[in-house]
Amino acid sequence: MTHCGVEQYVFATTRDGRQVDGFTLCNAHGMTASIITYGATLVQLFVADRHGQLADVVLGFDRLDQYETESPYFGCIVGRVAFRIAEAQFTLDGATYRLTRNCGRHHLHGGRRGLSHVVWAAEVVPCPDGPAVKLRHVSGDGDEGYPGQLDVTVQYTLTDENALKIQYTARTDKPTPVNLTHHSYFNLAGARSGDILDHILWIDADQYTPTDEELTPTGRIEPVRGTPFDFTTPTPIGARIHQVGGYDLSYLHNHPHGTLARVARLHQPGSGRTMDVLTTAPAIVFYTGHYLDGTLRGKGGCAYGKFAGLCLETGHPPDAVHHPEFPDVILRPGQVYRQTCVYRFSTADGARVPAD
Ligand code: FUC
Known about the structure:
By secondary structure, the chain is an all-beta fold. The protein has a single domain (about 1-345), classed as Beta-galactosidase, Chain A, domain 5, CATH 2.70.98. It is about 5% helix and about 35% strand. Bound molecules: alpha-L-fucopyranose.
């Protein structure tokens, strides 16, 4: 593409015959983001390195059927409630709701189809910040066990500041939990470049929410200080990973939620690429892609091995429906769920705590 704006194309057809469109957003610096209507999924993100060389920094597939059948949530929007809900049930206003069990006896990432395995409607929308596409999906009352009809929109905007902005809204006709996130696996060296252990990570969070062996939170909120989970000083991801096997945990960051704040910075020394993560939500989940085992064939036939990409997923902490001490995730009729997440790219120094 030689101009900035939005290019719309037909991506593929689902196994049940539904057309899936793609939208490529391009900014003034040649950065591009491609989003498909299946799962509102980011399938490509081309970002410049310190020499201006573009590389695709997100893991994904060439074929739609792979997104339908084997994707470990590559690049999609996850909901209605991201992360695990213990025992796949919760009680709200005196009624108990049973959800799809798709992770042992637990519920994961909104269930079997959720928001990630459905075709969304999409339109190009005018936006002063840059080219934008807005996707919408209405999840019916009872979908995956959740109460209420939930009307969700997600807008992706690519700004001339090299930021991919993701804005969520949701409205409901019955009280229901909502926690939406974006599930890209990033590798700032380029998605075909091996593992992410050399990436330097800073997470502006003094606290995290420990989990049990099945990755459901215990409900405690603990300091990261003195643990291998402490990224308050920029640290290579590989430095302490042998102590934990892989990172898969939720942080409560140090900023008030409701206003957009930078909560993390990821930097890859070889390419010079840096990604800042900003959010209005209270938590960020860090997952190092250690369930990848080389069997998935990604874009260009590339085998994605352990640690091939990492996720920095903003939202509310996992399993908040069971932990009143965590920020509340219940949306009620008349309220509007609104969150923003920004992944902003540069070649800024990643070895120091950002000063600005
Ligand atoms: C992340 C992790 C989960 C799960 C999923 C595919 O959200 O927190 O544990 O593996 O991705």
